[in-house]
C-alpha cells in the first residue's frame, strides 16, 4: 500500500492541473469567452470597455454585434488558450494568443481555432478588453506544436 501511495504522489508531482489559472492581464479574455460559453451577455459586456471593437475576419463589430452572434444554443463550449506574447506597459497590455473552442452537442464534437490579439486597458483598477483582432484558422493550418491550456 505504501508503494502505491508513493507512485500516486510522484505521478501527481509531474502532472499539470486540468485547468490553469490565468494572469490578471489575460483575465478579461478568459472572462469574455467564459461568458460566451454560458451565453451570459451581461458578463460579456462587463469584460469590455464602452469603446470595445472586435475585428472579426474582415468585419468591425462592437459588443452588441458579438452578443447577437452568440444566441443561447444547445451546445457546450470549452475554451483553451496558448499565449504567444504579452507586453504590459502600465495601464495597457498587448497580448497575442491562440484560442481553441471545443464545441460539444448531441451531433458530436468539433474544434475551432482562432489566432487572436487583444489590447486590454486598466479601468478603475480592473483589466478590460478595448480591442480584439480575431482570425479563424483552418484546421490544416494550425501548428501541431501548440500546447493549449483550459482556462475558466
Can you walk through the features of this model?
With 152 residues, the protein is α+β, with helices and mostly antiparallel strands. 24% of the residues lie in helices and 46% in strands. It is built from 4 helices and 7 strands, in the order αααββαβββββ. It has a 7-stranded mixed β-sheet with strand order 2-1-6-5-4-3-7. A hairpin with a 2-residue loop joins strand 5 and strand 6. It starts with a helix and ends with a strand. The N terminus is likely disordered.
Strand content: over 45%
Please mark out the parts with pLDDT under 50 across 5 or more consecutive residues, or reply none: 1-20
- What is the count of β-strands? 7
Q: What sequence of helices (H) and strands (E) makes up the elements?
A: HHHEEHEEEEE
Structure summary:
The chain has helices spanning 2-14, 27-38, 41-46, 63-68, and strands spanning 48-56, 59-61, 76-89, 92-105, 108-123, 126-137, 149-150. It has 152 residues and is of the alpha+beta class.
Supply the key terms:
single chain, 152 residues, alpha+beta, seven-stranded mixed beta sheet, 7 strands, 24% helix, disordered N terminus
